[in-house]
Amino acid sequence: xxxxxxxxxxxxxxxxxxxxxxxxxxxxxxxxxxxxxxxxxxxxxxxxxxxxxxxxxxxxxxxxxxxxxxxxxxxxxxxxxxxxxxxxxxxxxxxxxxxxxxxxxxxxxxxxxxxxxxxxxxxxxxxxxxxxxxxxxxxxxxxxxxxxxxxxxxxxxxxxxxxxxxxxxxxxxxxxxxxxxxxxxxxxxxxxxxxxxxxxxxxxxxxxxxxxxxxxxxxxxxxxxxxxxxxxxxxxxxxxxxxxxxxxxxxxxxxxxxxxxxxxxxxxxxxxxxxxxxxxxxxxxxxxxxxxxxxxxxxxxxxxxxxxxxxxxxxxxxxxxxxxxxxxxxxxxxxxxxxxxxxxxxxxxxxxxxxxxxxxxxxxxxxxxxxxxxxxxxxxxxxxxxxxxxxxxxxxxxxxxxxxxxxxxxxxxxxxxxxxxxxxxxxxxxxxxxxxxxxxxxxxxxxxxxxxxxxxxxxxxxxxxxxxxxxxxxxxxxxxxxxxxxxxxxxxxxxxxxxxxxxxxxxxxxxxxxxxxxxxxxxxxxxxxxxxxxxxxxxxxxxxxxxxxxxxxxxxxxxxxxxxxxxxxxxxxxxxxxxxxxxxxxxxxxxxxxxxxxxxxxxxxxxxxxxxxxxxxxxxxxxxxxxxxxxxxxxxxxxxxxxxxxxxxxxxxxxxxxxxxxxxxxxxxxxxxxxxxxxxxxxxxxxxxxxxxxxxxxxxxxxxxxxxxxxxxxxxxxxxxxxx
Length: 724
What we know:
- By secondary structure, the chain is α+β, with helices and mostly antiparallel strands.
- It is built from 13 helices and 38 strands.
- The strands form eight sheets. Strands 31-32-34-33-35-36-37-38 form an eight-stranded mixed β-sheet, with helices on both faces.
- A hairpin with an 8-residue loop joins strand 1 and strand 2 (53-54).
- Helix 3 crosses helix 13.
- It is globular.
- The two termini are 49 Å apart.
- The model is unreliable at 1-31 (pLDDT under 50).
């Protein structure tokens, strides 16, 4: 029998729940098989005489019970949609997990007297960071040497719904480890220091950190903190064995800039990079003089980006002063650590700027220099000998479309280059390259259980963009299932920040490829796929190129018979989610379905609000809507502002409640508005919100695979392949 007090409580909770549903605009007679309908609360957000009324601005109010009721209703509606797909989700999850070698270890990398690595354990969500002592005069690796645990993230994750780490750094003397944890997904990292031998935590911690580095004395720790808008703006010095408060040693006050820490390869200098989207300034400090003053190496000049390395008293600058794709110059480093642009202009040039190739990165060694180049959409590596710089050696691979990048190189006085290699049909591999003898040694290829690379094939195609520009496309498919005629095809894209969508192996995609789907990547402008100019031609006033390029890629794939509109699904996340929203507004009839993950879709409202993380610093990426001309750029493509009545593809949007990069309310508002406008009501429109995570979704590896299985189940359902 129910106790009267319990009955009273239950009625009160029921009344409150019904009230919240009504306030959120949900019909009291509505079942979860019917989509939630959010209330319209008009707010005038007009600027520059352009009338814009935002009916769903109120969904930003996270602490408002009405908002949470609406979000919960959307989550429940999505869960209801997925009920018939539960078996498929379980099957997909089993496939994804089944390809993983659960108990595995990374390739150890030597730093001083230790070999550092990480490993995963059977059934565990998170990695364990470990090290072993180097042996003998050659400081060799011995797998039988006792293993020492630096951090066991599985232990740290106990009692937490989310865990992310963005720093694990051991002090130069090898006695302490600095590490930072985020428990929400909102990028609120807290910095800790642990004594490695005892496992005891130092009685100090710092909140809202984003990066740290040790001075040579192993007692001084420099760290970066962020402000309320999550702009990395302050550098602090902490003395572990000292007294008194931490010292603020640098503050970046320009809202366009963020700061970040680094160190030259020879460990002689600590570096502080302060950068905007188009300008960089580097400060340096001798690592053995932690109480000294940080000096500006080369004063900032708008549009000039550079990075700095040191070797034998010489400063090496990778700099874009003679073209967007960078060059490499060298000149003596003054004792003052201060240079002028005139000195750099007269410096000896080691690698000239090229229009057809971008100098992306450089790894400095005592006797060699390794550089990472981007040519025709592929990333390649080249090695120079300082004693004979004019005769470089390229590191060759058999495949025509691949990605080779600089790896984990921690030792300055080394003749071995660690590099990473992968392709669409080749799992990620770690190689050591002998910079003296040119020998390439495979150290490890990531095991993928049941994978046979001979069953798959990759291709490079080219689309012609609206303005005549040739846009590359990468494809991968199972050869035996290619067949004749259009196939189900998943097209991915990003196209922002100069970030390249390189052809990389994705073991999860085998669940699509093995069912006959084709997976393609659109290497569109706005990304860095073909160098810096490719990026510049897809930002600010030229941002529309990103979206029209993607449409041209889709049209090419259809025209050449790879797919058809009723079989074409598109996918992108974050700025790639902006891409999804923009192209669907441009050509809704071109796509069967869309998966927009943590999508940046409310461009104008977000860029008008300087309290939101990333806003001010991204004026150089998207523009400042307070300026009429730049407002017009964004107004032309902002997904939320360009929705209109009509038929839309099936759409799955995904987000995390704690996302600090693209707040949850952007996709929430987008779905609410689209649901009121779309005329084909039977076509799915889903809002899948993770109520314990942030921008990157679930933090544990198995939880992340469950989320991926959910996405793939939606895709297969839309392709009519849910029973496969």
